[in-house]
Design brief:
With about 130 residues, this protein is mainly α. The protein contains 5 helices and 3 strands. It has one domain. A 3-stranded antiparallel beta sheet has the order 2-1-3. The chain is elongated, with a radius of gyration of 16 Å. The relative contact order is 0.21.
């Protein structure tokens, strides 16, 4: 049986921060892929596709923020997904892509921000009460 939690206010705010930041970065990447690709020396398809994924994830997170109860594993999946995104972003740098210095800084800053949000969500998860079984 799935263990349900009642999201703490802290967790709701962390998920909302994640949703807003994903929506902002996703919109920037999806709409501004061409100039960003030129400035950062990053592949346009990578920027556009990452932007679209972030927009979809932002919508999912926004929906998640409104639920009175959540499966604990769902929140752990969100935390793990953010941690994986941050790690994969850093792993892109040593050879998968060849950004300029500004592009490398952009990737590292968004990876650090994503890792920090994952940490906030994990702390928020630890503050949650377990939902009473009906």
């Amino acid at each position: 049986m799935t263990r349900m939690i009642i999201p703490s206010a802290f967790l709701r705010r962390a998920l909302l921060l994640d949703a807003v930041s994903c929506a902002a970065l996703g919109l920037l990447l999806a709409v501004g892929a061409a100039p960003l690709g030129w400035w950062f020396h990053l592949p346009l398809p990578l920027l556009r596709e990452a932007g679209l994924v972030l927009l979809a994830f932002a919508a999912f997170l926004a929906w998640t923020c409104t639920r009175p109860q959540l499966p604990r594993l769902l929140v752990l999946g969100i935390v793990a997904g953010n941690a994986l995104w941050a790690l994969d972003s850093v792993l892109l740098l040593p050879g998968w892509i060849a950004p300029n210095g500004l592009g490398a800084c952009f990737i590292l800053v968004q990876a650090i921000a994503t890792a920090l949000i994952a940490e906030l969500e994990y702390v928020g998860l630890k503050r949650c009460a377990t939902a009473a079984m009906a």
